[in-house]
Write a structure and sequence with these properties.
The structure holds two protein chains of two kinds. Chain A is mainly beta. Helix content of chain A is 11%, strand content 31%. The termini of chain A are far apart. Chain B has a single domain, classed as UDP N-Acetylglucosamine Acyltransferase, domain 1 (3 Solenoid). Helices cover 20% and strands 27% of the residues of chain B. Classes of the chains: A mainly beta, B alpha/beta.
Chain lengths: 294, 244
């Protein structure tokens, strides 16, 4: 797909290039189209080799790298969403799953809901009462879902076009690896711009955990109750996320990190680090501070 | 780097031992529990005829007892080993007696403890929508909600939590395991209470507080992590006014 194939105004199209996916600056999707929202995005794009096209405001154009396709817009993110919504019905750009593949050994409660298209359920899976599995969800072997859990719901995003508020269509899916266990009333959202929200082997979620679109979680992560994990989060292996913790969008968390209860993580957490507080900082420093005011 | 105990924990031999002993204990306990608990679990579910149960509620066939004049709303899931007292109501999509979260990561996999306890909801308890109440983690322990308490929406009550009578728990509250609340405790919206915490009768946990220490005497706590409300407010005032 080339930028010129889209229905954009000619004076906005600065340089035409090919793109194969839609993504964000901090992700390495091959040949991606990316919206520039902040100056930080610009830095990331200069380092990345996978981005092929950008949508950008005119006033931040001066420092552009030379080899990228450039589309001008007053609101880059809204334009990106508009292009995505336009392409969502294009089966070549976002391939669609065909039919369901459900193993016979999977135990599915009669009140559970399973979508009619693109669901794969591996052997010995256990789907609880009133759980819902939406389109493009892949459950590998031995996955367990508790009551009321929703796999493949849509992350609510919208953009404005004049006075209208238009929702963004989700086209991706969810991948739950072997032995993932999810308890009651959780929700794992499907990726918006194609690809998968991934939960690694043997990860366990407690009740009411919510994972937003396109997050990639590693193996053996233990996420406790009511935690919220934002969009495009990348998590290593063996991470502990405490009760009611919040992990902000696009944050990277290293292996064996420990997020304590009630923490609000807004910055990257290096491996083996324990963070707490709102906003989360090093645990030891935080405790010393609390002792002062206690 | 790290204390002696930390270093020991990462030693491969120690890890192997821990993994082995944990597995063994779980295996024995589970085998034991199935034998001891079998007669109770196999008891048929009893629903009092005066209880109002929605047709879309899912109630396990064994080990549930629902008292007089209870109201079970649409979409409620009640699994084995739950007892609901007279006159209680349970809001839409609430899950009662689900499996708790007790996991051990031994490096190459995770083992979860199979829960064998029960849930006991007292008389006249009001529970909101989309809550989760886990069962106790071993056969002698129960998760209990005291009489005439009210619980808001989207509240998570983990294994072995015991609340006193007439407690008020607002929406979005998260209890980690083994929390003990006295009578008439008031927990504000979206508060979080750490595991094995006990809170004295009549205390108030303010909205958004993250309680990480016991509250031995009646008081009010606020903040993340929670400190005494008066101190928290004076600290906040010092930030706002730019003092220090």
């Amino acid at each position: 797909m080339r930028l010129s194939e889209l229905s954009v105004r000619k004076e906005d199209l600065m340089r035409d290039r090919e793109f194969a996916s839609i993504g964000i600056a901090r992700e390495s999707k091959p040949k991606s189209l990316v919206a520039i929202r902040t100056p930080k995005d610009l830095e990331l794009i200069n380092q990345s080799s996978s981005v092929s096209c950008i949508i950008v405001r005119k006033d931040s154009l001066k420092e552009m790298p030379s080899n990228l396709g450039i589309l001008l817009s007053d609101d880059p993110e809204a334009t990106l969403f508009e292009i995505h919504n336009h392409l969502a019905s294009n089966a070549n750009f976002y391939p669609r799953g065909k039919g369901n593949e459900i193993s016979r050994s999977a135990k599915i409660h009669p009140t559970a809901f399973i979508a009619e298209n693109g669901v794969r359920i591996g052997s010995s899976c256990d789907i609880g009462p009133r759980a819902a599995i939406m389109e493009n969800s892949v459950l590998e072997d031995n996955v367990k879902l508790g009551p009321g859990t929703v796999i493949g719901g849509e992350t609510v995003r919208s953009y404005r076009k004049g006075a209208q508020v238009i929702p963004v269509v989700s086209t991706g899916g969810v991948q739950l690896r072997k032995g993932v266990e999810i308890h009651a009333n959780c929700s794992v959202d499907r990726a918006t711009f194609g690809g998968y929200t991934e939960i690694g082997e043997h990860s366990r979620f407690d009740n009411m955990v919510s994972v937003s679109q396109n997050s990639k979680l590693g193996r053996r992560n233990l996420v406790t109750a009511c935690s919220v994990i934002g969009e495009n989060v990348v998590m290593g292996n063996d991470v502990w996320v405490g009760p009611n913790a919040t992990v902000s969008d696009e944050v990277h968390i290293g292996d064996s990190a420990f997020v304590t209860l009630g923490a609000v993580v807004v910055e990257d957490v290096p491996p083996h680090k324990k963070v707490s507080g709102n906003y989360a900082i090093d645990h030891q420093k935080f405790i010393e501070f609390i002792k002062k005011i206690r | 780097m790290g204390s002696f105990i930390d270093r020991m924990k990462t030693h491969p031999r120690m890890l192997r031992m821990m993994r082995f002993s944990y597995r063994l204990s779980i295996r024995f306990r589970n085998a034991f529990l199935t034998v001891v608990y079998l007669p109770i679990v196999t008891r048929k579910t009893i629903i009092d005829p005066s209880a109002e149960v929605s047709s879309s509620a899912v109630i396990a066939r064994k080990g549930v007892r629902i008292g007089r004049n209870c109201r079970i709303m649409p979409g409620v899931v009640i699994l084995e080993r739950a007892e609901i007292g007279d006159g209680s109501s349970i809001g839409p999509n609430t899950v009662v007696s689900s499996e708790g979260f007790d996991c051990f990561n031994y490096g190459t996999g995770v083992i979860a403890k199979k829960h064998a306890g029960a849930v006991r909801i007292g008389e006249g308890v009001q529970i909101g929508a989309c809550c989760c109440i886990d069962k106790g983690n071993n056969r002698r322990s129960t998760t209990a909600i005291g009489d005439h308490s009210s619980v808001g929406d989207a509240v998570h009550i983990a294994h072995n939590v015991m609340t006193g009578e007439r407690c008020t728990i607002s929406s979005g509250v998260t209890f980690a395991g083994h929390v003990l609340l006295g009578d008439e405790v008031n927990v504000g919206m979206n508060a979080t209470i750490s595991n094995r915490i006990s809170i004295a009768a009549g205390s108030v946990v303010m909205r958004g507080a993250v309680v990480s220490r016991n509250l031995d005497a009646k008081g009010t706590v606020e903040g993340n992590f929670a400190v005494d409300s008066g101190r928290f407010r004076s600290f906040m005032r010092s930030i706002v006014n730019g003092a220090g």
